[in-house]
Amino acid sequence: MRSLVPLLLLAACAPAAERGAADVDAERIINADAEPGNWMAYGRSYDEQRFSPLDQINDSNAEQLGLAWHVDLDTARGQEATPIVVDGVMYVTTAWSKVMALNAATGAVLWRFDPEVPGEAAVKGCCDVVNRGVAVWQGKVFVGAFDGRLIALDAKSGRKLWETVTVDQSKPYTITGAPRVVKGKVLIGNGGAELGVRGYLSAYDAETGAMAWRFYTVPGDPAKGFESKALEAAAQTWTGEWWKQGGGGTVWDSMAYDPKLDLLYIGVGNGSPWDRNVRSPGGGDNLFLSSIVAVRPDTGEYVWHFQTTPGDTWDYTATQHMILADLKIAGQVRPVIMQAPKNGFFYVLDRRTGEFISGKPIVRVNWATGLDARGRPIEVAAARYTAGNPWLSLPGPNGAHNWQPMAFSPKTGLVYIPAQDAAAIYKADPKFRAQKIGFNTATDMTAEPLPKDPAARKAFMAGVRGFLLAWDPVAQREVWRVPHPGTTNGGILATAGNLVVQGNAAGRFGVYRATDGKTLWTSDVQTASMAPPVTYMVDGVQYIAASVGTGGGHFLLSGAVSEHSGKQRNISRIVAFRLNGKKSLPPRPVFAEGPLAPPPMTGTPAQVTAGKRAFHKYCSVCHGGAAHSGGVIPDLRHSATLGNDAWYDVVMDGVLKDRGMVSFASELSRDQVTEIRHYVVSRAHEDSAAAPMSNE
């Protein structure tokens, strides 16, 4: 059958010459299929399907792909952005919320913008100083800066037009998600539930930056009144004094919009703290935590909600990617919204009303035995861990599917999911107290990420699996899967060329046949690939491009577990491929830290034990569980400060705050900082026989 793409291109190319930079509006996004050469919104179109009609690259020629161009970036932190491509120009963010405009055919840099996020803001983040991308609208580029600012840039020059602070910057709020623009309003949420904030989504006028409305996702202090009737009703599902610790429910990523129904869908995150026994001691569903919520984009008025994990206590967010589609179910075409949140189930809902249609597990799940007729989980009682009763849960807090977007192909009817299978231990922390810096989960984070016994370690790692999963959303069953060496693999692109594209954490960027998962082509990009690819066309040539680079919460916190995908350091870059591309990447640089050579152990067992607890409470979020770095930032086991007083200059005095290492003097005494050092020294001695970190 002859491809329709050339005809569509002819229809779209004439007005392109008359348009200004990033002159995108609702009509263009709604009619995105008429301009398949562009990728004008985060999910390409408002339905967030991440499916492209382009088919120049297809299952018969994908093996001819080669590198067209690459751009190395000026940061070694994580890369999670979706590039936006409009009329031959790519707009993309990098770590620290920096923005670049590139020639999409050559990679030549047109302009750069640095919001100059203070280095000390890094301590407010749970999961690295990442950014997931920009939105473009009527000649403007919008970016959410890590420190909570929403910034509008001129698309042609990169000049700042306006900025507005969207959060209370005295609190541990961050922005890592990509904005969306709907009906002239820029929509942005925030993160910080692990550290203790109250979540919300805000809408700002795209021309002026003035706030139009704000939708809070959890109720505040009842004594101060509620912002809406919806929140007044939600408060009936909470107990205790949840507002004192924020409550959580941050809207840090996923959104979708249906222009026909005029409904905006938002995904809501976990509670603050995680443990419901602390957050809401009398129980309750704790609305709108871990929910999909539909609101009106003009006003933020609540319409309906569906809660995937009532009374969440496992960090099972519902901020994962949501997709809108029309599916034929039981002989009837129904408008649906689909999501695979962290909790392990795949949900299909009627997007008009939020009615539950179906749901099945996509990975091993042991915290619930299934879903009832309303879609409510049938919980295993022991899964709600209490003091002295830890729970080994499938999945763990990294989820069966995390932030990396999935994709839907209308051609195959399948959803393609970056799925993973990994357990974690949840333990209540009977000594929990809220702190100003670091995690406030109310869970005991001192459990080592890996068993020390070699046999037990091997058995544990055998159960840690990541894979590209093709899922039939109507039959609710797996169709095929492609295994990867480890977890935290890249987001997904699907195309009309019968292709599915995904990078993985081991540094391979691959193209697979959409119908059966056959590997058609892979390339070594020398670094982990987490961000989702996009495809576009310039001057009749189709490209597939992605940001690549290790980072994010898993690679910071999980340490040794993250190395299951292979020991490698981060190389942040943007890569673009085309048929018969002839470029090549530079030789892989060698990163070697050398053998561990810690100073003598001088701490007592009691000091080491106390240091372990403090380390996991304050330090592990960046420096890794069991003081084992995931290769993104320096490994403390190798630190030259372990044997001298420079340790206190860093931890107490904050001499490295510009790099993100702030002073902990407000939270830790000198004795506690000494105990942490004793613990790190002990870990270095335990691991001194381990091979040096290398990417060879």
Topology:
Blueprint: H1 5-16, H2 26-30, E1 51-52, E2 65-72, E3 84-86, E4 89-93, E5 99-103, E6 109-113, E7 135-137, E8 140-144, E9 149-154, E10 160-165, E11 180-182, E12 185-188, E13 200-205, E14 211-216, H3 229-234, E15 247-248, E16 255-258, E17 263-267, E18 271-272, H4 276-279, E19 291-295, E20 302-307, E21 322-329, E22 332-339, E23 345-350, E24 356-361, E25 368-371, E26 377-379, E27 391-393, E28 407-409, E29 414-421, E30 424-426, H5 454-462, E31 465-472, E32 477-484, E33 493-495, E34 499-503, E35 508-513, E36 519-524, E37 534-538, E38 541-548, H6 552-557, E39 573-579, H7 605-618, H8 620-623, H9 646-651, H10 670-686
Parallel strand pairs: 1-33
Antiparallel strand pairs: 2-39, 3-4, 4-5, 5-6, 7-8, 8-9, 9-10, 11-12, 12-13, 13-14, 15-18, 16-17, 17-19, 19-20, 21-22, 22-23, 23-24, 25-26, 27-30, 28-29, 29-31, 31-32, 33-34, 34-35, 35-36, 37-38, 38-39
